[in-house]
Amino acid sequence: MVEYLFNSSGEWIAFKKGDYLYNKDCEWIGWFPWGDNDAVNNSGEYLGTICKENRLYRNQFSPYRGYPGYPGYPGYPGYPGYPGFAGHSSLPWNMYDIPKTFLRRQ
Predict the structure, then answer these.
(1) Residue 75 has what pLDDT?
(2) Model confidence, pTM
C-alpha cells in the first residue's frame, strides 16, 4: 500500500511503501528503520518525520538515534499514481518543510 506524503503547502513530495521512502520520481531516498515515523536517508542520517498522518516535516532538534544499518536496495516501487494536493496545514512546533535538495537520491 502506498502512503502519499505532503509538505505544509499541500504539495505531494514523497511516498512511503512498506518501510521505504521514495520521492516523486520513484527514486529510493530513505527508509523507516525503527518502525515509527522517523525516516533516515540512504546514508543513515535523519531525513524527516511523518506528522498529522500524511505530512513529512523535518525536526530542527531531532536527537541522534544511532546508525540504523543498511536495509539493502528495495528495487523499483512501481508508479504510485498522482494524489493531487492535500491542502495547507500549519507546521508543528520546531518543524519545517524538508528542502527539496534532501528529497533527491543521495
Answers:
(1) 86
(2) 0.92
* Dihedral angle sign, alpha carbons of residues 5, 102, 10, 82: negative
- Tell me: the pLDDT tens digits for 5-52? 999 999 999 999 999 999 999 999 999 999 999 999 999 999 999 998
Cell numbers of 7, please?
A: 509538505
Residue 84 and residue 33 in contact, taking contact as beta carbons nearer than 8 Å: no
**In DSSP terms, which residues pair with 5 in a beta bridge?**
14
Three-state SS annotation for the chain: CEEEEECCCCCEEEEEECCEEEECCCCEEEECCCCCCEEEECCCCEEEEEECCCEEEEECCCCCCCCCCCCCCCCCCCCCCCCCCCCCCCCCCCEEECCHHHHCCC
